[in-house]
Fold this protein.
Amino acid sequence: MLSNNLTMYKLWELVQPHPFKPNSNQEKAILHTQGPLFLTAGPGSGKTRVLLWRTLNLIVFHDVKPEEIFLGTFTEKAAFQLQEGLRSLLGIVTNITGKPYDISGMYVGTIHSLCQKLLKERRLSNNDKKIITPVLKDQLGQYFYISKSSYWKKITQVGDFTGDANFIINQYFDKGSNSKHKAVINCMSLFNRFSEEYLDPILAKGKVDNEVLDGLIDMYTYYKDSLHEAGKLPQTDLSLIQQQALDVLANSYNSEQIFKHVIIDEYQDTNTIQEKLVFKLASGHNNICVVGDDDQALYRFRGATVENFVDFPSRCQQYFGCDAEEIPLDINYRSRQQIVDFYGNFINSTNWRKASGTGFYRIHNKNIKAHSQDANTSIVVSTPAKPEHVCSEIASLVKKLVDTNKVQDPNQIAFLYPSLKSPHVEKMIGALEQVGLKVYAPRARRFLEVPEAVAVFGIYLKIFGQPVRGAFPGADYKNFHDWMDKCVNVADQLIEADTSLDEYVRERQEEIEKVTSDHRILLEVVEQNQWDLSQPYDIGLMKRALYGARGLSGTAKKALGNIYFERIIEKRIAENKPFSLKYVVNAASSVDWSVLDLFYRLCIFNHFKTMLDLAEQGEDEGPVYSMGLITQYLARFTEEYASVITAQFLLNDKFQNTFFTGFLYSLFRLGESEHEDANDPFPKGRIPFLTIHQSKGLEFPVVVLGNPRKDDNGPQRVETIVSPLLNKKGEPLDRMSEFDIMRMFYVALSRAKNLMIIAHYKGTGQRLNEPFKTILNGNVARIPRFDINTLPEVKEDVDELPKNYSYTSDYLLYQRCPRQYMVFRKYGFIPSRSQTMFFGSVVHKTIEDLHYLLMSRRQK
């Protein structure tokens, strides 16, 4: 019994300065503790708070241990918010009762991350032995793995195609093309879908009467087997890791007893394998709670199956033989009344009834109500006109909103589009800039084309040299080399304007020439002595000859003669793990920085330092956010290819081919900006441009739907390929695209708090989706007649969840260096192995890192 008569009701009141007052349905959901629970949560209905308080109720008032709760979220950001909120609330409980709580063992995160955790869960091991956790490849890592030339050659041979494999694969998916890049992307989409559907390749082949699909299934089998190649650390991808977790659960005698409660957020976005997984986890106690909104199901292209949510009650009967209690969270606390009515009428305008006449493809009879009683105009539409006029009119309204302080910052106005690869986006950006407003739209183009990326990689091209433009066909190849030309031109301008930068670039060029010269000299010594580079390094036999090589630089000699390095060599020999001669030659002829280190060294020069200054002063955060994204890609290169740049890597244009025409060209072709990130920032002083998918789960005081058109091109090709291989019923293929478009626009329309602005294009080549065509041509409020004085003031956002700060990772880091805290904690910069030029500190994690640190000091 808790002391001081603590109750949930008292605890709600203790959360200051904003006590929580749940409505009746929220309270029922929070206090529900036994059996399946089905929460249908409309936009802005406070579901995050409900999940937080429900979890708190289980831990504090029902003695459920945190490690007995499995809480799956859609993003790591959502998981972090729940963890921090839970820590804060439990801290309040501890202050009252004196009872401490430890949630470090709690399962909270994305289902993918929790599957990783399950794979190394000792409670699931029948023999209590440590399980080797596979290395997880994300989408980008999967692409690099499959597209590697040697691997792609092997896997397409397995497909046993008659003719050009690339052309045959692409033709099967869409249209003929010999593009390897497109073939890899097509295979990835199919492989991932096979994995998400838990498809057995052998059984699938029995249903196939197409030679190309038969070959693709063989390729999928080879792909899965190759990830577990004997003698190598096992690997997996985001789709397969769920299969592996389910297999672990199936083979464990106590898997059904580990978790007393399974809670899954955004359940409408789960796939087939995830449904099997969560019901397996909950089967011991039948306590499964799912939260979601089928009208916000956007991720079919990632394998999501909305039927998991719509049919959840019947699935509970199927798996558990019992009913689920259904509680609707149907009060919108986010938006003004007209906005709620508008998106409700919009989604209901489509016929969701099943072809059989019985049942619906969505949760029927929803009644989302606005908590706000403000019925003034909150939906306005532009004058129907050509794009140029519409964009100008909307830009003028936005400018007026900013100038009259109807928003506290331009980043509170979001522009949403079905796709940012649209001429309407370019026109709107131009119109906003014309009235003096800055935008943040790194994903409107390829990210590599933003000014910050052009400047950084231009300097890299000057230092390492620009790859030669070949005579290869294709627009992508030409555009990429045009981009490199642009980067070099910008770099030339920066170098001309900054003599210090000019000197630094020349020093790095000379350093590269020096280490490559040293490498050739050392290889000549190896050849003259008829040594094998793979043999162990013998100090007594080899050091003198290498050290005394004619023409060898003093830097290389100091590296070879370094007493600390010799001690490490001797220690490795004693451990029977000697360095190879090749390793020593490379170590003595390598630069002392990685591509990420180089980035941080560039940050001391005026052009790049100014970006940090602007952010620190609160004037403009756009450039520094882009710089943070650059560090993420550079860190990715060091993970995938090389953390150290050796002369061997630099010789024969190998680095150029790997970094520029390999890594960066892949990002360029992928149009990696299409890889949406829920954690993308919204810099102060700039108006964000987002895809509607990116906006899911977010809210803004003002939202502009910049293009109410999305063409219905029918189901994705992967759907038509996989559907005949599955033994399940779902939404009909001929209506999938229609449903998905409606859900997408529903998400867009429900993001706004105070004002929703809709573009109404008219003229040659312009068209509106239904029901927009009917609605916008009816009686709607137009921008010219809209009185912005009717808009309420934007109140300062109050975080739904309490914040929890760490003394060591927040306060002490800020005290040590405010700028370091700013870039790493706020702007998402990835730390390099060393930022000696940037922060004056070096961090090393392994003995080899220590070695390279010593090597970096060889000139001292």
